[in-house]
Amino acid sequence: MFKTIIDAFKIKEVRRKILIVIFLLFLYRLGCWLPIPGIQKAVFQEATADKNGFLGLLSTLSGGALSNASILALGVSPYINASIIIQLLQVAFPKLDEIAKSGEDGRKRINLYTRIAAFILALAQAIGITASLGSSELFDANIWGGASGGIAGIFIVCVLIAGAMFTVWLGERITETGIGNGLSLLIFVGILSSAGAAILEAITSIAGGGADAIDNLWNLIIFLIAVVLVFAFIIFIDGAERRIPVQYAKQVKGRKTYGGQSNFIPVRVNGSGVIPIIFASAILSFPYMLIQLISGDDAAKSYNSVMGSGTWLYIVLTAVLILFFSYFYARINFNPEDISKNIQQGGGFINGVRPGKETKDFLTKVSNRITLFGAIFLAFIALVPSVVFALVGGDLTGLTGAFSATGMMIVVSVALEFEKQLESQLVTRNYKGFLN
User: Which of 401, 410, 421 is nearest to 381 (CA)?
Assistant: First the structure.
């Protein structure tokens, strides 16, 4: 990967795109540290102290923006949830699916619907957070003076919504450069920032000495080794695939002979990436947001005690939702019927399988088996490493919150996708030079 980045910087056009991406990411990180005027930062820090809670997870994905009470505190969460809703609606309403498949105009309309849904969710989320923290200690009396809490609350809600939509705008500008998905890169730098801050905090506490300094040092070393092993396992599975060989018969047309070559259909073990985990987490955290908005902080805490991260009910529902969304996305990304038709129309066949319905049934069977292993892998990654990290981390509790399994999968997926995008830019540039 580092060689790809070095080669990319040697080409002026690609280097310019990379510098634009770095500048926009810098703007995002700067916004994550700019506080909302007139509020007490300590209130937000106390609310996000539990890294396993909804607000703590939201703060981790945003790189600590929520705990910093920044103008970009909501991050990309509203847009991600809006994307989930729009994609599910495309399955439920065929008309919406037709719009999405109607070319560039359809894509623009779907993006518009997603932005509108993101705005609505940002409004609900901002009101929910402000209402749950709407105590007398939240607003700075030196700035607001005798103003009512309602006016101050409306101001904070407006700032949070504006920050969320600005984050969406930044992500779209990054995507336009052609080097990676903008919103994914924003999440990527947010997670790395949280992880870096947690490691620095652990090193600082160890350097400060104390009776447990040596034990904490060994806990940190063992923890980092466990993180590296989990990273290696994720990368190994991410590249695993089942290759189904396809043979194409020779066709004689006039004086020319076509076909006769062999190819394969790649079926990835984890074809849906980290999306099932994100969807499962979003669905399980959405009721928390609604309860917080409608019933207040006490009801939200009661819900979190039953459905919070680490409870048995949360673990079971997470595994079931991951399984569901894995098969859901497998059907979207890998359609056995369409693939079997394309093979038959191209004069191809799978060895030992008749073209047509038998080929479709065979591909469906293979896809279901591979998807099952991929879903088990995702459920394992979503649940087991967090428990292992908690055991080997010892007293370094900040590390276990920053290094979530979901975050690690996002980091790996985005890094690999970023490398692929850079390689495609280099290949395109090299071909242009050859043709010119």
Answer: 410
Taking residues 178-207, what's their average pLDDT? 78
Q: What's residue 136's pLDDT?
A: 54
Say if residues 380 and 357 touch (Cβ distance below 8 Å): no
Distance CA 253, CA 270 (A): 40
Is residue 19 within 8 A of residue 431, CB to CB? The reply is no
The model carries a pTM of 0.74
**CB of 246 closer than 8 Å to CB of 267:** no
CA geometry: angle at 290 spanning 191 and 316, to 5°? 65
Q: CA-CA distance, 84 to 90, in Å (whole number)? A: 10
Quick check: helix, strand or coil at residue 423?
A: helix
Domain 210-401: CATH superfamily is SecY subunit domain (1.10.3370.10)
Q: Using CA atoms, how far apart are residues 277 and 152, in angstroms rounded to an integer?
A: 36
Decide whether 1-203+404-436 matches 210-401 in CATH topology: yes
pLDDT digits (tens, 9 = 90+) for 35-68: 887 777 777 777 776 655 566 667 766 777 877 8
Report how far residue 230's alpha carbon sits from residue 235's, in angstroms, rounded to the nearest whole number. 9
CATH number for the region 1-203+404-436 comes to 1.10.3370.10
Please compute the mean of the pLDDT values over residues 356-378 and round it to a whole number.
85
Per residue, what are the HEC states of 134-147?
A: CCCCCECHHHHCCC
Q: Are 366 and 382 in contact (CB under 8 A)?
A: no
pLDDT digits (tens, 9 = 90+) for 370-424: 888 888 887 777 767 666 666 665 555 556 666 666 677 777 777 777 777 777 7
Does the structure show a pLDDT above 70 at 243? Answer: yes
**Residue 310: count of CB within 10 angstroms of its CB:** 11
- Residue whose token pair is 């949280």: 194
Q: Where are the domains of the chain?
A: 1-203+404-436, 210-401
Q: Point out which residues pair with 272 in neighbouring strands.
A: none
The alpha-carbon radius of gyration of the chain (Å, integer) is 25
Q: Which helix (H) or strand (E) holds 225?
A: helix 213-238
pLDDT recorded at residue 166:
92
